[in-house]
## 1
Amino acid sequence: MARTWLQIKVDLVGGRGVRCRPSPGRIFIVGPGHTFQQFADAINSAFARWDLSHLHNFELADERLIGYPDDSFGPEMTWLDHAKLKVARELKPGDEFEYVFDFGDNWQHHCTVLPEKADPAEEYGPVPPGPVAIWGWGSIPDQYGRRAFDDDGE
């Protein structure tokens, strides 16, 4: 098992038909035992998503799809189970891949594994039980395009 903590830069490219320019982003530390499901949860939290009832997937450079294995969505595709695959086993520094949250609104993220390894105690403090964001920038758009309490996003 890999014992290395990775640093992964995640840029929000866009969603809901809108491109984010400039792209807001976050840098995460991801430990050797963390799954892609845990990483997806960390990304969604760091990008202020509150309605988590949507499907998501990671697409690696070799075109493997990692997500919730659901044969009703894309039965012609082979999905690898996000709850079983460990991020640090599948990725190495320099790898680039994509993450999509909510297939309807299509929130697209470009992810890059940074060359620098991470020391969780130095970067975060107590060793976190899951992936965490340690740095960030940019304005995060609302998941549904809402700008006020009574705005329906349309």
## 2
Amino acid sequence: MMKTILMGSAALAAMTGGALAQDTIEVTLGVLNDRSGVYADLSGEGSVVAARMAVEDFNAEEKGLDVEILSADHQNKPDIGANIARQWYDQEGVDAILDVPTSSVALAVAEISSQMGGILIDSGAGTTELTRGQCQPTTIHWTYDTAALATGTGKAITEAGGDKWFFLTADYAFGHSLEDETSKVVQENGGEVVGTVRHPFPATDFSSFLLQAQGSGANVIGLANAGGDTVNAIKQASEFGITQGGQSLAALLMFVTDVHALGTDVAQGLQLTEAFYWDQNDGTREWSERFEERHGAKPTMVHAGVYSGTMQYLRAVEAVGSTDALEVAAKMKEMPFDDPLFGKGYVRGDGRVIHDMYLFEVKSPDQTQGEWDLYDQKAVISGEEAFLPMIEECDFTKTAG
């Protein structure tokens, strides 16, 4: 477990007397994610960097917030993630947990956060259950979910003629959710699902699964997985010559770090949906340059979500004057935001953050002008279209206070 302390106001308070000390709000944030496995590149240490940047850019010290940041590796295992969350809340005084990729871990941490008086601001997990069947008043789901991915990539590919799908699905909550949501979109747009196979999470050898997909009669193989699993599946599909045989791959969740790892010679032409890309505008470029100077790579949408979610949390703490979980979560939902990474958005009553999503296509090698010049933007999907409508029983603004 790693600890980073961003301090200043407490020391200043000690030097200038009791009045200022009374005004200081101590805040402890925990970045909980995969720091060593298949999601480490898209999440990992980069999310700690993003949280630290948010604290600094917010000028927390000047605003009387004394912020401490903890981090730990949940190893993509719900029991490990749950134990860390309990320890943080019980022994370390953590107020909010950030990031938490891997949907099964996120769902466990969301429940513990609600029980133990903390907030989960999730950037890395995709399951829609965080704001539906297993919604909690103190869960904020920031960056994306499987419904938004399906609305973007699934709809675009089906409308373009990819009407027979076979799913290669990671066998846990996220993969199941992504397959389910994309299947609905495919069928709503006139396509059909001809088969599915579920692979262990994580996996390294996809050969038998790809052979099933190859013989399925599908014209689209939907990859309902992420991170290293997606990269390995695409590499092996390329080795088998699957795309040369008339089938196409749909990377239903893919990150800029995945495309960078594959290279545009392998990934060119893939369509994917993201909430953020470093080269969208002056604001994203400026922030991403500062991030890369610290981290050595461009940020993913997960890193951007950690930054933006932390900023919104700190705004709410400042407005409320405490770290009370229910009050801060309610305040986060009251205040719309407009930041350089996600633009204008708001936190809905169920904790779902509503912002635009984007459909991208990976450039060919002759189109790129640098190692991270990877995407062409094809479409903007409004937040209201991208995300599922709120269900009434998860609208916690009706019960707040």
## 3
Amino acid sequence: MDQIPLVDLAAAHAEIADEIRTGFDRVLARTAFVGGEEVAAFEREYAAFGGVAHCVGVANGTDAVELALRAVGVQAGDEVVLPANTFIATAGATARLGARPVLVDCLPDSYLIDPDAALAAVTAATRAVVPVHLYGLLAPVAGLAAALPSHVRVVEDAAQSQGATRDGRTPGSGGIAATSFYPGKNLGAYGDAGAVLTDDAELAATVRSLANHGSTVKYRHDIAGFNSRLDGLQAVVLRAKLARLGAWNQARRDAAVRYQELLADLAAAGRVVLPGVGEGEAHVWHLYVVRVPGADRDAVVGKLNAAGIGAGIHYPTPVHLTDAFAHLGHGRGSFPQAERAAEEILSLPLHPHLTADQQQRVVDALAGVLG
């Protein structure tokens, strides 16, 4: 029986292959390998899609987080508040610029940053809070930003939320956000790529300069920057996929609704806890994440994988329990909601080309594993 992948990049490529070849030919003919018109066009198009004034393409999502932090003035020695439940790159980007990650717990239902915990962690040394938009759902940025003292800025990690809104707000609107175009994202390149999104022209100019060796004019370097630029070939891929992203996100929403229906009996029996969507939240379902309380989650994932179901775990270890950030001094029990999520959650296959028959197979397999 055919495998059901967690993400089907081959199906996405098949849909745009001819367009990609034509676009690559344009880049090769112009030899515009770094920057160029394809990059400029993508930046305009993605800014319009995301409802912000400026999009600055960079080399990857981790760089995007660091560049956004630097743009709002975070420096070595400053504190940056971020959730323990996130991909390690959020903390890594903070540490790379010499700032100190200050971890807080997540909410028990959405697994997003706990706004009250974030506010409680703010000190005179805090310069930014980084709410992470997880699984396709936006964190409560507006309320958090309004409650923060004036010396603290919000920098959104929007790597998993391309096309999502909360109360009509998009990532970066009225502030600044970083996103990733890693291949598995809703909008994925054919390699590493990322962007910083903002309505603030000054912040956008700072990011663009920092990412280009501190330069806006060739061989004139006003600040010490580094090299993090989007290349023309990746921009071709991103433009082709962006033209389809609205439809692909809707296909993800449709698949999520099917999962909710197919998994209803398991949920009623308490075998799985399904994700929810609150009022005003437009989810784009980067991942479909369920909890399996009372089960050996790792064994469940292993059995699903053995049955050809590409289940995954996002994420198996909270930041504070990784060796990389053990020096922060948080032992097991420090962030109970993040730790519970790490032990119980699993991601089921979800992508725009997933069929209803495949979803039925996924649910049947999960029901069989859970007994």
